Predict the 3D structure of the following.
Amino acid sequence: MRAEIERLVEEIKQSVGLLRRHLDVEKSTARLAELNKLAEDPNLWNDPQKAQKLMQERTSLEDSLGGIGKVEQELEDDIGMIELGEAEGDDGVVAEAEAALKNLKKEVARRELEALLSGEADRFDSYLEVHAGAGGTESQDWAQMLLRMYTRWAETHGFKVEYLEESEGEEAGIKSATIQVSGHNAYGWLKTEAGVHRLVRISPFDSNARRHTSFSSVQVFPVIDDSIKIDIKESDVRVDTMRSGGAGGQHVNKTESAVRLTHIPTGVAVVCQAGRSQHKNRAQAWDMLRARLYEIELKKREEKAAADQAAKTDIGWGHQIRSYVLQPYQMVKDLRTGVQTSDTSGVLNGELDDFMAATLAQRAFGTPGADIEDVD
């Protein structure tokens, strides 16, 4: 077996070993057997919330354990094919098996990242808000570009996207927007994107074709299920209703049904205008408010709470987590991890996995953020 293939096989084996230790296969297998037994209980669904939580845990364990078993079997099959091809002098079979090994390595890398998503709320669906910074049309156009970027990322990964609120800019772009991204581990992935995003480009709105810098912020919080109780006093919440027309956005309803809830003690405000029913929008807004307050509690329990929150407070210079430079050269650089790429078109079309993966790994392994220089 060639040295390159041997190295590839060894890397996959090491990754599988890490996955097995992270999952604690023996303990997880015993837990899955216990969950399967509980699922056979005809009285399980007498408590729908408990049943749903149990079934979610069972599905997650089945996927994790089944994935490891599948990888191990495919690795064994590929090694066998290579040995057979080499014994018979069939280079085509060896090349085919080697290509399969490379794809298997990518699959293992994806599962390693999934293993990092073990936070309390990572498995939940996610709300994502985009807000334009100061700068008028420039920042509003950038906010719309970011919204499209995340929508494309979500759709590429098979997630469902629902527009909950969108406020159009005066000339172009958006002032703000809120979407709900639904799918397995949606919040776990998207939480890495919270912060200020900086764009440098030749402005399409400047007749003198000068270079402009724009800022927009992204905020992410989990869609919590009924098993998590967040008590909110109605007296602490101001309710405003408004018309969703005018600058209501192309994706949302435009009737007398928009609802804004403001939690007075924290200043947290949410808006929902997606539905035609004010009752439905009010219920959705309460769900969003509970999710925002839950996310705040999660942040308090994280070591980086102060830094993360500071990154959201000022949508401007010095607070950005990532810079996107389109002129005079092409570069996207993450200022937390140092990950960068010249494929700006790919990134703006939703190719964000490398950035998300690096941030997840940094958080999971406690690697301190380096002093990374921004791009001009």
Q: What stands out?
A: Residues 308-313 have pLDDT under 50 and may be disordered. The longest strand covers residues 211-223. The longest helix spans residues 48-88. Residues 140 and 146 are 10 Å apart (CA to CA).
